[in-house]
Amino acid sequence: MATYVILMNLTEQGIKSIKNAPERFEAAEKAIEAAGGKLLGLYVTMGPYDYVAIAEGPGDQVAMLQLLGLGMAGNVRTTTLKAFTREEFTEILKKLP
Hints:
Blueprint: E1 2-10, H1 12-16, H2 21-34, E2 38-44, E3 51-57, H3 60-73, E4 76-83, H4 86-94
Antiparallel strand pairs: 1-3, 1-4, 2-3
């Protein structure tokens, strides 16, 4: 499975309805699981991002679909990083000339 680090900022709509955040977290986790993925961690953070999530999914197309759905809900804007484990990185390095 591919790993993704998702950096999120609340929109104006998201902050106005912040009290509903726990329910939104639960719905997002269920959507990820329904798509064959897993939410590994979700953190509320102080600094340039309001939330940071780490998720696994079956591939980039599924991740894109989930992220578009999250954006369509209008509560957050995302910046997503595809992450590689140490083991995956080691295998990549083996292919270098």
